[in-house]
From TrEMBL:
Domain (N-acetyltransferase): residue spans on this chain: 126-261
Protein's name in the database: GNAT family N-acetyltransferase
Family annotation (Pfam families): Acetyltransf_6
Alphabetical UniProt keywords: Transferase
InterPro entries associated with the record: Acyl_CoA_acyltransferase, BioF2-like_GNAT_dom, GNAT_dom
Residue runs in coiled coils: none
Highest taxon in the source lineage: Bacteria
Gene Ontology molecular-function annotations: acyltransferase activity, transferring groups other than amino-acyl groups
SUPFAM superfamilies: Acyl-CoA N-acyltransferases (Nat) (SSF55729)
Length: 261
């Protein structure tokens, strides 16, 4: 993989030329910033910036003013290769709170399919497509248990997206009997090279049994069916080790910086 070329494609497809991720969202562009504005339950934030040392502080202040006037908390999605090099410290000085750093990892979809061809869930576990309200509820249930957060916003986003554009979202859930023990989703942006793997989580007592790998395999096949060459993940350290074995390459870092949350 040509890391520099793939990162340039990623910046163009998913950041500079970003599309709204739901029917209640819109993308706004200026010469130096691309941002999404959504409803109270949607994702609000800065996707891309092309700043320099002289204009960065004014641009940061402008985004704060814009979202504050809308009554929205928002995220500045900072990538490790963004400029200026001290953009992270400038965001913190302006009142943003950084979340844990993640690693942007990308793989060729075909390679992931090949490396997970033998992936199967543990005995007694079945994997289902969560394509209705009941399925979404199971995905949210796992999300709340694994990540310890309220799933109301996620529930709203998934249901809204499935209703407006069902082909853009593939959510899967693993069931042990009637218990949802693992869940994840694939977000597909038509016309781009990339599909994103999001929200992968497994209940603690079910980890280490191959569920994460199995759900990656399901989503890789779905991405291939939709014509996406690459899979993209923002990975925490625990996931990174597994993803590297599945053909994923680390391209840069991404650190969410939150304001007003």
């Amino acid at each position: 993989m040509d890391h520099a070329a793939v990162l340039a494609h990623y910046d163009r497809d998913l950041r500079k030329d970003a599309r709204p991720d739901g029917p209640d969202a819109r993308i706004e562009r200026s010469a130096t910033v691309v941002r999404q504005v959504a409803g109270a339950h949607g994702w609000n934030g800065v996707l891309w910036s092309g700043l320099d040392g002289t204009g960065a502080d004014a641009a940061i202040a402008g985004q704060i003013e814009h979202y504050t006037a809308l009554g929205r908390a928002f995220e500045w999605k900072l990538h490790g290769h963004d400029l200026p090099a001290d953009l992270g410290s400038r965001l913190v000085a302006a009142g943003f709170t950084p979340e844990p750093e993640e690693t942007l990892m990308v793989a060729e979809t075909a390679e992931v399919i090949a490396l997970t061809a033998d992936a199967e869930p543990p005995e007694g576990v079945r994997v289902l497509r969560a394509d209705g309200a009941a399925g979404v509820e199971r995905v949210v249930e796992v999300h709340e248990k694994v990540f310890g957060v309220d799933g109301g916003g996620l529930r709203h986003r998934l249901l809204t997206r499935l209703a407006a554009d069902p082909g853009s979202l593939v959510a899967v859930v693993a069931l042990a009997g009637d218990e949802a023990v693992s869940a994840a989703r694939l977000e597909s942006v038509t016309g781009t090279r990339f599909a994103g793997l999001w929200g992968g989580g497994t209940l603690e007592h079910w980890r280490g049994r191959g569920l994460y790998r199995t759900l990656v395999a399901h989503r890789a096949r779905a991405a291939a069916a939709r014509g996406h060459r690459y899979l993209q993940v923002d990975a925490l350290p625990m996931s990174r080790r597994v993803l590297e074995r599945l053909g994923f390459h680390a391209l840069t870092t991404t650190t969410p910086h939150l304001y007003g949350a």
